[in-house]
Amino acid sequence: MKICIVGGTGNISSSIVDLLIKSKHEVVCFNRGLRGSLPKNVRLIKGDRSDFKNFEKKIQKENFDVAIDMLCFNHLEAKSSIEAFKGVKHYIMCSTVVTYGNKSILTEINENSPIQPYDSYGHYKAEAELIFKEEFEKRSFPVTIVKPSTVYGPNSGLLRQVGSTDFSWIDRIKKGKPLIIADDGSIKHQFLHADDAALAFEGVMGKKHCVGQNYILASQEATNWKDYHNMAMEIIGKQVELVKIPFANLSKLNIPNLDLLNNIFSKDISYSSKKILKDVPEFKPKYLMKEGMKQVIDSMYRKNQVPDDTEKNYWEDQIINAHKNGKVLKKIKKGLSFKIKKIFNKIKKSN
């Protein structure tokens, strides 16, 4: 099949491209050509999808069997995609489970759960979904909506619970420095490897019974944050102390990259993948958490993506020191010594 990927170099979409190439499909990517690289046998249509007229004109010149849109983030882009992909046999939109909100509930969230996004990202994704659903109901536009939970892989780095995208936590483990977790670390989260997510996207393609449907895409394996960080320690080969700090205290501090903790990583939420497992038998996740984590950590070291914690992490030791002295830190300070050390390390590396 001739397949268009809107995107193609991101965390999930790069795995989709690789899988489709292995399956002998003709793959064409539409993106700005600014991030990453594509395999040699993948053609690039260069453009900005927010330039609707140009996007629609370039796509309409092609004759795609399937479109997988990884970059549709709002109702205007949804309308543009419908115009661009008129005549396509199957259009697959990548949405998000964020549309279901972030309230901790005792039952699993499934495709029939209420839509109640907590932020603008989820709100705009939900609006885009509505446009596609209306177009399917009124004009039989052949859409399937796939809604991933947290997807990790070599192109995303390895998140942590507190500080999320501050990857210097891996360097802290290697140096034997303690790490903070929220509360007792018992909150569970579902992590799906990007290569496994790709199996679902490819598996949906061309299935008539998937048209008009939406699917939650999440791992069946849930890992609590204490075990998650301990797995990383085992892989790196160094055990460090996990310091338990109440989430209520952490949420009041100006810790960088705390949004994921506040909105997701402190919530006990479980997503059901029963529907996609039933409708798409090709979706058989291969990666266990520890195996996938090792692959990502190894990749991060190869690509020099693990920053020196002395250049990046100025906040963690302040919180830990206060906690060990029986105090609750009120404010994090980015001291002059940290700034000087960061400049010194840059000079040292340049020499």
Widest β-sheet, arrangement of strands: 3-2-1-4-5-6-10
- The residue fraction in helices comes out at 25-40%
Structure classification? alpha/beta
Low-confidence spans: none
Question: Radius of gyration in whole Å, from Cα?
Answer: 22 Å
Our measurement of the CA-to-CA distance between the termini, rounded to an integer number of angstroms, reads 52 Å
Q: Identify the CATH architecture.
A: 3-Layer(aba) Sandwich
Q: What form results from the Cα inertia axes? A: globular
Indicate the proportion of strand residues: 15-25%
Number of domains: 1
| CATH level-3 fold name | Rossmann fold
SSE order, as H and E? EHEEHEHEHEEHEEHEEHEHHHHHHH
Mean pLDDT: 94
The count of helical stretches stands at: 14
Helices and strands, with pairings:
Layout: E1 2-6, H1 13-22, E2 26-31, E3 43-46, H2 52-60, E4 66-69, H3 75-84, E5 90-94, H4 120-139, E6 143-148, E7 150-152, H5 168-174, E8 179-182, E9 188-193, H6 194-204, E10 214-217, E11 222-224, H7 225-236, E12 242-245, H8 247-250, H9 259-265, H10 274-279, H11 289-302, H12 309-312, H13 316-324, H14 336-350
Parallel strand pairs: 1-2, 1-4, 2-3, 4-5, 5-6, 6-10, 7-9, 8-12
Antiparallel strand pairs: 9-11
Helix pairs in contact: 1-6, 2-3, 3-4, 7-11
